[in-house]
Amino acid sequence: xxxxxxxxxxxxxxxxxxxxxxxxxxxxxxxxxxxxxxxxxxxxxxxxxxxxxxxxxxxxxxxxxxxxxxxxxxxxxxxxxxxxxxxxxxxxxxxxxxxxxxxxxxxxxxxxxxxxxxxxxxxxxxxxxxxxxxxxxxxxxxxxxxxxxxxxxxxxxxxxxxxxxxxxxxxxxxxxxxxxxxxxxxxxxxxxxxxxxxxxxxxxxxxxxxxxxxxxxxxxxxxxxxxxxxxxxxxxxxxxxxxxxxxxxxxxxxxxxxxxxxxxxxxxxxxxxxxxxxxxxxxxxxxxxxxxxxxxxxxxxxxxxxxxxxxxxxxxxxxxxxxxxxxxxxxxxxxxxxxxxxxxxxxxxxxxxxxxxxxxxxxx
Length: 364
Known about the structure:
Blueprint: E1 22-24, E2 30-32, E3 34-42, H1 47-68, E4 72-74, E5 77-88, H2 92-104, E6 110-112, H3 117-130, E7 134-136, E8 151-153, H4 158-172, E9 177-183, H5 187-202, E10 206-212, H6 217-228, E11 234-236, H7 241-254, E12 259-261, H8 270-283, H9 289-308, H10 313-321, E13 326-328, E14 331-333, E15 344-351, E16 354-362
Parallel strand pairs: 3-5, 3-6, 6-7, 7-8, 9-10, 9-11, 11-12
Antiparallel strand pairs: 1-2, 4-5, 13-14, 15-16
Helix pairs in contact: 1-9, 2-3, 4-5, 6-7, 9-10
C-alpha cells in the first residue's frame, strides 16, 4: 500500500476569510491562520484497514467540511483546520515518539488519537505532561483518562459496555451459559472480559473463560476451541476484527451452532444516516465506528475552540469539559467535567443482512 502524505491537503483558502484570517509571512505573502491537529493513525498489517485508514478518512472528511464552511472562528479570527498525521506502527515506542514529535516539532494544538487503549494510555501521559488536549475516539480502558485533565475519549468505558452486554444477554436474550475469549496482551480485551464476567455472574449466569497470549491464528483457535468445547449458548469476543473473523471461520468449519455476542455502533437518527451516505460517496464503502468517532472528535475540538475563543491548552481543556449540547453523528456527547463521556450504548443485532438497531441503554 502506498504511503499516504503526512500533511493532509485540506487548507483550501476561501475568499470569505478575508485579510483577518492571515498573518504576513517572511516574503510578505499572507499565510492562513490554522488550528493544528495532530492525528495518530495505526498503519500496520490488518490494523491499517481497521484503524489507520478509517482514522484518516474520518478526520479528513470533518476537516474538509469545517474548512469549506470558513474554518473555526477563534476570538473573532477564522482558522483553517490543518491535519498533521503520523502513521505509526504497533509498537508503543513508535506511537509515543510520534506524539512527542507532533507536540514538540509540529507544535500541534491538540492530539486526535490514538485509537487502541494500549497506545492511548501511554500517549495520554505524554499529552498530560505537555498540557495538550487529546481525544482518543475508540479507547475504552479507564486508565486512558484516569487522573488526567487533558485527556478525553469518545467511546464508552469498558465497564459500561460490559454491563450493558451482560444485561442484554441475561435479561433480553435469556442466556444461561456464555463463553468469553480474551487476548492477554490487550488492555481493552482484559478489562471488558473481567467486567462482563463479573456482571453476568452477578445476574445469575454461568461463564466459561479462555484466553490467549497474543500470537496469531493458531493461538486464537486453541482458545476458541477450549471455550466451544463447553457448549456455551453465545461467546463474547472483546477482540480485534481479524480475531473475530477467525472465530467465525472456525465455527463454520466445525458446523457449530453458536453465535457471537458483540457490541457495535449504530445510531438510528437522520444525522447518522446522512453521515453514512456522505462517507459512502466519498470513500466507496460504509464507515467503521473508528471513522465516525474520529469525525465527531474533530468537530468537538472545533466547537470547543470556538467556545473557548483560544487555542491555549488550558482554555481548550476547560471548554471541552464544559461543552454543552454537542450533537455528533454517533449521538450526543457531554463530559460533565470528566474525560469520560456521558452517552447511551446503542445495541445492534448482526446477521446476514447487516446490522439492525435493537435498543439504547443508559451507560451511566
